[in-house]
Design brief:
By secondary structure, the protein is α/β, with parallel strands linked by helices. The chain folds into two domains: about 260 residues, no CATH class; about 60 residues, no CATH class. About 50% of the residues lie in helices and about 10% in strands. A five-stranded parallel sheet has the order 2-3-1-4-5, sandwiched between helices. The protein is globular and about 60 Å long.
């Protein structure tokens, strides 16, 4: 590229929001609910964009609306607008050509490279990039960008590509707030360092016993191991966003969202700068209209169209034995972290 389309100011959303949290924390549910607001577009996981668009004809790359990306009117419009913008800015990139190139693991190519991930064949290279991200978060904004440009090029490139797509998504959806449900702390750090304005971070935390039961079903992972990873992961997230302006961070729990979704969403709408709902709008706001959503990636529940109401997943109460619950709570820090999930 000879210039970055990210610098085109008219493509910037008013607000870029990011959900950070552990796996299986409920980000798909929260994203769908926030996306019901007429000012907020929940695009799912930006990390998946390159992979999805590069294999848009694959049945494994479905939009939440149920269509393959080549057939989804929204994502087709996003690609058309992206091509137009590239021509307007004089940047010679052919999106059709880029999509035909083979993927490198999970990464796309060119502007489709949006995956901010810890993988690299060289652990030294990965450690260097992560160190650059950590340094960038503790520096003034201009110094952050210079640090990433010099030492964190892999993450910077993916973050700037992501910003380009956020802008296109905001334009096509005609919504000023774009929500990325990616959850990863590395993406949060890179976007925070590269975004032209403040990144709005939503820390979604879920009772770790629910996550432990989910991991036990999926991978047979030991409950104590799940507990340690849950505590360590959420502590790391809080430590990282602790360097940010507190006005740009909001922590919510999955349990509070399911118990009183209206109260939780009112707080988040205000946090994102979205207008308050009128009384008559709340019924629609609290209904999961999946076929009108266009999220990428996330929990398979986004395809279960019969599930339209909000219901907490508390299978852990039946699936975890008393001994497993005891071992979970005996993990250092688990009891304190559980208090945040009330």
């Amino acid at each position: 590229m000879t210039a970055s389309p990210v610098q085109t100011s008219h493509t910037r959303p008013r607000t870029i929001a990011y959900i950070v949290g552990s796996a299986r924390s409920g980000s798909t549910l929260l994203g769908m609910l926030l996306g019901n607001h007429p000012e907020c577009f929940a695009m799912g996981e930006m990390d998946s964009l390159g992979s999805y668009l590069s294999r848009a004809k694959s049945p494994n790359a479905l939009c939440t609306c149920g269509r393959m990306l080549d057939e989804c009117p929204f994502w087709k419009a996003v690609l058309v607008r992206a091509q137009e913008l590239l021509k307007e800015t004089g940047i010679a990139q052919d999106l059709a050509m880029l999509r035909e190139r083979p993927l490198n693991r999970q990464y796309g190519t060119g502007l489709f490279d949006t995956n901010i991930h810890g993988f690299h064949p060289s652990w030294i290279h990965t450690a260097m990039h992560r160190a650059a991200l950590l340094a960038a978060t503790s520096l003034p904004h201009c110094a952050s960008r210079l640090t990433l440009r010099r030492f964190g090029g892999r993450y910077r490139k993916a973050a700037e590509n992501s910003l380009f797509w956020y802008g296109i998504i905001s334009q096509v959806s005609e919504r000023p707030v774009v929500l990325d449900c990616g959850k990863g702390v590395l993406r949060m750090l890179a976007l925070g360092a590269c975004a032209p304005g403040p990144l709005k971070v939503i820390h979604l935390i879920r009772d770790g016993r629910g996550q432990a039961a989910s991991m036990k079903r999926a991978t047979r992972q030991d409950v104590a191991t799940s507990a340690r990873r849950w505590v360590r992961g959420n502590r790391r997230i809080m430590r990282m966003y602790g360097r940010m302006d507190a006005s740009n961070v909001c922590r919510v729990s999955y349990e509070a969202l399911c118990r009183d979704p209206r109260a939780t969403l009112e707080v988040l709408y205000a946090f994102l700068g979205c207008r308050a709902f009128h009384e008559g709008e709340w019924q629609r706001a609290l209904t999961l209209e999946k076929t009108s959503s266009h999220m990428l990636g996330g929990n398979p529940m986004r395809f279960r169209n019969d599930e339209r109401t909000i219901a907490p997943d508390e299978r852990w109460r039946d699936e975890l034995s008393e001994d497993e619950l005891r071992r979970f709570q005996n993990v250092k820090g688990a009891r304190e972290m559980l208090e945040l999930c009330r």
